[in-house]
DNA sequence: TCAATAATAGTAATTGTTACTATTATTATA
DNA sequence: TATAATAATAGTAACAATTACTATTATTGA
């Protein structure tokens, strides 16, 4: 295990990630934090997100060609909006994941230990027509 | 719609894709075809795979940071091997996909029209210990 | 057969991500 | 509290997967 020393940047990244209901990409986090951390580096965001994942404080969720990050680590389904590209949680019954894994096992000659359940659609914000001021 | 003219390369790419039980990446296809098509260009593989997908003759399946391609276009689950990175079909009951989509709808305020069901595990070939000759 | 033009090979450009390096910040200890 | 060891940073370069560009070649309808 690598030594991990505290850093203000990592705390800020973790806090921002926990705060949000969507699951931002490294880039989105970077721009969200730039305001209060003008000197922040994109590499720092990537490195710290990696460390948070290793430490079990976050998980990577593959999006549409980009990696998203989620501060909730237990496996659960997500939705990616075709329109804005944002990723959200889908709160299906929590046993679904385990059930689907067990259900699939006899159909594969080998071992299954992971399941990515990613829906695609149009989020509420994008479905709503733009307000005309 | 763009005009599509026949080409030997596209036919070869499509045939190779249909032939294989795994779902190769553009790169893997490129190297598989290089033997009989020494002048083949990687860009040509990408471009033609894109066209085949647009034409409904193939589908993209996001893998682990790389795009895989599948000549079977109806939605169905896949397995990605953690060890060799290859992607295979998982022949679960075909109605599962539609059912999971329907099941999830009431849990999302917006529209759902797509579902990626991607298992992870160790394939039979990788699970087997290497033969000692 | 031939002219119009889509497709190609080869290369350059883009994008998301990781690696490298000199400098700065953190922390355990004196 | 001061300090020394060293992890973390900012900034930049490198990288890998993919797309775009361009001069040349192949296909196809007349």
What does this structure look like?
The structure is a homodimer of 133-residue chains. Chain A is an alpha+beta fold and 133 residues long. Chain A has a single domain, classed as Arc Repressor Mutant, subunit A (Orthogonal Bundle). Helices cover 35% and strands 22% of the residues of chain A. The first copy, chain A, contains five helices and five strands; from the N terminus they run αααββββαβα. In chain A, the strands form two sheets. Chain A has a three-stranded mixed β-sheet with strand order 4-3-5. In chain A, strands 1-2 form a two-stranded antiparallel sheet. In chain A, helix 1 (8-19) packs across helix 2 (26-34). The termini of chain A are far apart. The model of chain A has no long low-confidence stretch (mean pLDDT 94). The A-B interface holds A 62, 64-65, 77, 79, 81-82, 88, 90-92, 100-101, 103-104, 107-124, 126-127 and B 62, 64-65, 77, 79, 81-82, 88, 90-92, 100-101, 103-104, 107-124, 126-127. The structure holds a DNA duplex (30 and 30 nucleotides).
Task: Provide a brief overview of the structure.
The structure is a homodimer of 133-residue chains. Chain A is of the alpha+beta class.
Please outline the helices and strands.
The structure is a homodimer of 133-residue chains.
Chain A lengths: L7 H12 L6 H9 L7 H13 L4 E4 L4 E4 L7 E4 L5 E3 L6 H9 L5 E14 H4 L6
Parallel strand pairs in A: 3-5
Antiparallel strand pairs in A: 1-2, 3-4
Chain A binds a DNA duplex (30 and 30 nucleotides) through helix 1 and helix 3.
């Amino acid at each position: 295990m690598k030594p991990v020393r505290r850093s203000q940047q990592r705390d800020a990244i973790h806090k921002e990630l926990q705060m949000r209901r969507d699951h931002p990409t490294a880039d989105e986090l970077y721009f969200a934090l730039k305001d209060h951390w003008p000197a922040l580096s994109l590499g720092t965001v990537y490195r710290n997100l990696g460390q948070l994942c290793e430490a079990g404080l976050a998980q990577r969720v593959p999006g549409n060609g980009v990696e998203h990050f989620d501060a909730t680590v237990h496996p659960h389904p997500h939705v990616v909006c075709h329109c804005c590209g944002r990723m959200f949680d889908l709160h299906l019954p929590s046993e679904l994941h385990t059930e689907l894994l067990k259900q699939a096992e006899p159909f594969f000659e080998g071992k299954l230990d992971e399941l990515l359940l990613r829906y695609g659609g149009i989020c509420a914000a994008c479905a709503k027509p733009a307000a005309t001021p």
